[in-house]
Amino acid sequence: MTPGSLDGEDARLAPGTLYLVATPIGNLGDLSARALAVLVAVDWIAAEDTRHTGRLLAHFGVKRPMLSVPAPREASRVAVIVARLARGTNGALVVDAGSPAISDPGARLVRATIDAGFQVAVVPGPSAVIAALTVSGLDPSAFTFAGFLPARVGARDARLATLLARPETVVLFEAPHRARATLEALARLAPERPMAACRELTKRHEEVLRGTPAAVRQQVTDEKERGEWALVIAGAPRAARVSRAARQHRDSVASGDPRGRFIADQVAAGASAEEAARRADFVLGPPKGKRP
Is the pLDDT reported for residue 168 higher than 50? Predict the structure, then answer.
C-alpha cells in the first residue's frame, strides 16, 4: 500500500456510507495514510469548521466539496447529510482535532445515519484521551473519560467530587481559561492525588506537568495556560477501614441529611472519611457550627 492509497476491500469506497475520519490533534504528520486516502476518495466532507479542515486538506493537496457541521448546528445538518447518503453518495465526517463524536460534533449524526439504515465506517487515528493517558505515567489499565467539566463552579466541583471517588484513572478536558481554577479545585478536593496535566499534545509547545494538583498549579503561568488541556488524575485509593466518622455520616443518610448522603456516597466509592468530608466542605460548604 502506498501513502494516500486504498487497498483490498477499501479500494472502492462503499456508496451510502459515512466515514468517521480521525484527524491530527496537533502534528499534521499523524494523519494516517488510510485517512488521507479516504478523504481523497469520498464524494464530500462534512467538517466541524470548514476553514480549519480546509487548511488541513490544502496541506495534503486534497480538494473535495465540504459541508459545515459545527456543534450548534449539528441537529439541523442531519437531514441534509442523510439525504446525501440516500442518493448513493459517500462522505467523511471530520472534526477539528481527533475523532468525531468524542467531545466534538458527530454523535447525533452517527445515530441518525444508523437509524436511517445507512452504513457508518470508522477510520481511527489520533486521540488526545489516549495520548494523555499513555504519557501521564499513571495506571492505564482502567480509566474513565469525563469530557469537559461543567462551566459553572458549583456544578464543576460536584462533578469533580464524583469523579475523584472513582477507583480508576480519570481523564478529562479543560478549556485554557479554566485550567488554573480547575487545578485549584483539585488541590482542595484531593491534595495528595497524583496527576498529570498535558498541554498542547503533539504540538511544538507540548508539555506534561506531573505531581500533586498544587504542585502542577504552581507551574502554570499566564503563558503556559494557553492551549488545550487534558488532565489525568489517579484513581481513589481504597480505604483500608471505615472510620467512626464515616459510620456516623452513613447513619445520617436515614435522616435525609444531604451532607451525610454526599459523604456516604464518597466513602462507599473508595474515598477516606477525611477526604470525603473535605470534599463536602468544598462542594456544599462547612457544616453548621464549623463556619469560618
Answer: yes
The answer to whether the CB of 84 falls within 8 A of the CB of 77 is: no
Residues 235-264 have pLDDT tens digits of 998 753 344 445 555 555 545 677 787 887
Q: Which residues, in sequence order, are CB contacts of 78 under 8 Å at separation 6+?
A: 108, 109, 112
Half-sphere exposure of 53 (CA within 13 A, CB side): 28
> Which is more confident, 4 or 99?
99
- 179 and 193 share one domain: yes
Q: pTM score, two decimals?
A: 0.79
In sequence order, which ranges of the chain are alpha helices (DSSP H)?
Answer: 33-41, 50-59, 74-86, 107-115, 128-136, 153-164, 179-189, 213-218, 244-253, 258-268, 273-284
Q: What is the CA radius of gyration of the chain?
A: 23
Query: Does 174 share its domain with 213?
Result: yes
Q: How far apart are CA 149 and CA 159, in angstroms?
A: 7
The CATH number linked to 83 is 3.40.1010.10
Separation in Å, CA 284 to CA 113, 118, 254: 43, 48, 19
pLDDT, tens digit (0-9, with 9 covering 90-100), for 196-214: 999 999 999 899 999 999 9
| Cα separation, 102 vs 14, whole angstroms | 24
